TrEMBL record:
NCBIfam families found in the cross-reference section: gcp_kae1, T6A_TsaD_YgjD
Coiled-coil stretches: none
Family listed: Belongs to the KAE1 / TsaD family.
Matches recorded under PROSITE patterns: GLYCOPROTEASE (PS01016)
A molecular function (GO) term: hydrolase activity
Residues involved in Fe cation binding: H111, H115, D299
Cofactor: record remark: Binds 1 Fe(2+) ion per subunit.
Swiss-Prot/TrEMBL catalytic activity: L-threonylcarbamoyladenylate + adenosine(37) in tRNA = N(6)-L-threonylcarbamoyladenosine(37) in tRNA + AMP + H(+)
Keywords from the UniProt entry: Acyltransferase, Cytoplasm, Hydrolase, Iron, Metal-binding, Transferase, tRNA processing
Protein name: tRNA N6-adenosine threonylcarbamoyltransferase
Protein location: Cytoplasm
Length: 336
């Protein structure tokens, strides 16, 4: 079974073709970062227009590079949410139209399920069950995963997501867009000597909160001389605080569930300090940790194609309606 995957939840147009037995055949990604950097963040209307411009050419390119024709495809998977409504509609309408034209089934994929299953694209994928930490610009979730669609939410951010806190802190320090990677690069030159809080780690539970950490950063920055070294030190201290907070919560989740496997995915999972902190924690817990390769941490079509393929193989597909859900709790997904 060949499945075309389409990802347009935000500002990256991702296309991939996945085969049920052979694995990933091809994946392409077009990023809009350069365009949105002029505005200091993603402009939803511009994102939608750029998806319209790039989507069909990328699909044609993917088929050509895979040496396939449209008649070779057995299904189309598309991101239906959560995400920006306009961007989602571009991908959903294109996928649904092509599926109708080519007379093949289409399946709506949850964006976070795509991230959660991204490590399955690696040579040594994790076996079920496991605990998953999903960290991105819009979400921070801890999930117990018993199988595809069998997800139990353990904890989530009560305010800002981890990636959102990175971006807002970077903007506060005058680093520009995209903030997360720039803050991480600056942190490499800093000394995390300032004692930052580890939010909600002094109380039981697996929920997160990063807005207070952002406020602490702002107060610290306003009180310093704002030299380049000050900025680097604050970036390093902030990053360490986030990494430690995530590690403490993941350690609790592993102990609470009794599981010995941790999957970490989403755009923020590419952060080197966070990876190092979580790896150190799992080593102490004698647990295994799994990350997707860096190119599959951010939004991509490969994870959508894989997730969609698993659901199509199980006999799931959508009707003729175009599905787009900007808000879509992962707990509402059906089991296989």
């Amino acid at each position: 079974m060949y499945v075309l995957g389409i990802e347009t939840s935000c500002d990256e147009t991702g296309i991939a073709i996945y085969h049920a037995r052979q694995g990933l055949c091809n994946h392409l990604l077009y990023s809009q970062v350069k365009m949105h950097s002029d505005y200091g963040g993603v402009v939803p209307e511009l994102a939608s227009r750029d998806h319209i411009r790039k989507l069909v050419p990328l699909i044609k390119q993917s088929l050509k590079e895979s040496r396939l024709k449209s008649t070779d495809l057995n299904g189309i998977a598309y991101t239906a949410g959560p995400g920006l409504m306009g961007a989602l509609l571009v991908g959903a309408a294109t996928a649904r139209s092509l599926a109708w034209t080519w007379q093949i089934p289409a399946i709506a994929v949850h964006h976070m399920e795509g991230h959660l299953l991204a490590p399955m694209l690696e040579e040594n994928p994790p076996a079920f069950p496991f605990v998953a930490l999903l960290i991105s610009g819009g979400h921070t979730l801890l999930v117990q995963v018993k199988g595809i669609g069998r997800y139990q939410l353990l904890g989530e951010s009560l305010d800002d997501a981890a990636g959102e806190a990175f971006d807002k802190t970077a903007k506060m320090l005058g680093l520009g867009y995209p903030g997360g990677p720039k803050l991480s690069a600056l942190a490499e030159h800093g000394n995390p000597q300032i004692k930052f809080p580890r939010p909600m780690t002094d109380r039981p539970g697996l929920d997160f909160s990063f807005s207070g950490l952002k406020t602490f950063t702002m107060n610290t920055f306003n009180a310093c001389k704002k030299t380049d070294q000050d900025k680097a030190d604050i970036a390093a201290a902030f990053q360490n605080a986030v990494a430690d907070t995530l590690s403490i919560k993941c350690q609790r989740a592993l102990r609470q569930t009794g599981l010995k496997k941790l999957v970490v995915a989403g755009g923020v999972s590419a952060n080197k300090q966070i990876r190092a902190s979580l790896t150190e924690m799992t080593d102490k817990e004698k647990a295994q940790i799994y990350f997707p390769r860096p190119q599959f941490c951010t939004d991509n079509g490969a994870m959508i194609a894989y997730a969609g393929c698993q659901r199509l193989l199980a006999g799931q597909y959508e009707g003729l309606e175009i599905l787009a859900r900007p808000r879509w709790p992962i707990s509402e997904l059906s089991c296989l």
